[in-house]
Fold this sequence. Notes:
This protein is α/β, with parallel strands linked by helices. The protein is built from 9 helices and 10 strands.
Amino acid sequence: MSDITVSTDTASLELQANELARQLSLPFNTLNPDQIQLVITQKHIEIRAPDLGNPIFIDFETGKNAHRRQFGGGRGQPLAKAIGLKKGATPTIIDATAGFGRDAFVLANLGCQIILVERNPLIATLLEDALQRASDNPEISEIISGMSLINDNAIHYLSKLKARPDVIYMDPMYPSREKSALVKKDMRLLHKLAGPDTDSEQLLTVAREVALKRVVIKRPKSAPFVGDQKPATSIESKNTRYDVYLAI
């Protein structure tokens, strides 16, 4: 992350921005449109990056997350079925590749206790900021109370875990298409920050040993199985496939 800096667009927040830079071991700099910058604003923390248009931040209160919470299909949606949500069964979950936290928020909205594990410190910072803001919103604070965040490599975290979850959920990075215009800007940024996926097969192996019941992997519908390991079953939606592996 040597080319990434922390900044702010508000003079009164400069001390806070410098403290965040210290915590992340990143330099503080004035606003620079030619750099990737983690920027503290009066409303939220966001990432600004060249060629990506508007800044990116995480918001559980409005926009797509709010729409999915209200109209996502409840426990009948493919994600919920894959996780094993049914009457009388609300599993505990670890989202081992939290990213922007969208699926984790859906599962928390359905009543699950879920730990979000995100290894990239910048994305984890955005998640922490979004969770903090949402926890102050009485409309969704109960949902947010079911979500907790860990900034760590998932394999390292799972290998030291004492309280095993019922389900481990994975949404590993899928290679970017060559025509980047086809990929949403937040996903392009996630690819840039996270780098190529090199350990999803190892993560699947560890996850199956740790989960009490199952591991669920989200994949593009036409993508190969992770590590060519055939799942016990798959649940499909329009563009997505959820591969379900039984715990070992």
